[in-house]
Amino acid sequence: MQNDKQDVLTDKIRDHLDDTVAKMDGHTLSRLRQARAHAIDNGLKNKTTFPTRQWLSVGLVMASLVMLTVLLMPLQPGTSQKEQGTLPATIAAEDLDILTQPEDLELYEDLEFY
Questions:
Q1: CA distance 57 to 51
Q2: pTM value surpassing 0.90
């Protein structure tokens, strides 16, 4: 139904323009044709081989993704505490437990072998 309305409107516009063109004199029609040809020539000359709009859109999407990644990236736990020179108590306790276990000491004794 929408296409039918568009077709009717397009036909009405075409008929109106055809009637308007039929009423114009030869000099005006000649100038209109020259202007149209000039516009088409300039449009073809201004076309570049490098698709700048496509690269611009790709660049903007990539920059947006990078910014989104940076903003949403979770901070690594303990980063600010390490910068201050202190370690969280839970990490220090876990490290102490690992270092004091006797079976892990054998691994450190034969470190050159591994």
A1: 10
A2: no
* Eight-class DSSP state of 19: H
Query: How many CA atoms lie less than 13 Å away from 18 in the CB half-sphere?
Result: 6
Distance, CA of 109 to CA of 103 (rounded, Å): 10
pLDDT at 9 over 50: yes
Q: Which residue's entry shows tokens 């209109």?
A: 32
Query: Nearest to residue 2, comparing CAs of 18, 15, 16, 10?
Result: 10
Tell me which residue of 23, 53, 21, 55 sits closest to 36, measured CA to CA: 21
Residue corresponding to tokens 């903007």: 60
Quickly tell me which residue has 């201050």 as its tokens: 84
Q: What is the rounded CA–CA span in Å between residue 60 and residue 55? A: 9
Give the DSSP letter of residue 74.
Answer: P
Buried/exposed 33-58: b ≥16 CB within 10 Å, e otherwise: eeeeeeeeeeeeeeeeeeeeeeeeee
